[in-house]
Amino acid sequence: xxxxxxxxxxxxxxxxxxxxxxxxxxxxxxxxxxxxxxxxxxxxxxxxxxxxxxxxxxxxxxxxxxxxxxxxx
Length: 73
Known about the structure:
By secondary structure, this protein is mainly alpha-helical. It contains 4 helices and no strands. The protein has helices spanning about 5-15, 25-35, 45-60, 60-70. The longest helix has 16 residues, at about 45-60. The two termini are about 20 Å apart. The relative contact order is 0.14.
């Protein structure tokens, strides 16, 4: 069950600051390597796809509610 009040607060925070940051030298190395050898490679697009896919796998109900929430407002 998704807490609707918490979802609204999270949506507001996401709209104020849609960027996330994490520390990972390994991820940085791999993604920068791919950027250097792949034309038009976008680190941001790749990380978004990976993270969103994994979040949907781990938390399908929450991701579904989040998608609906972002579309409605």
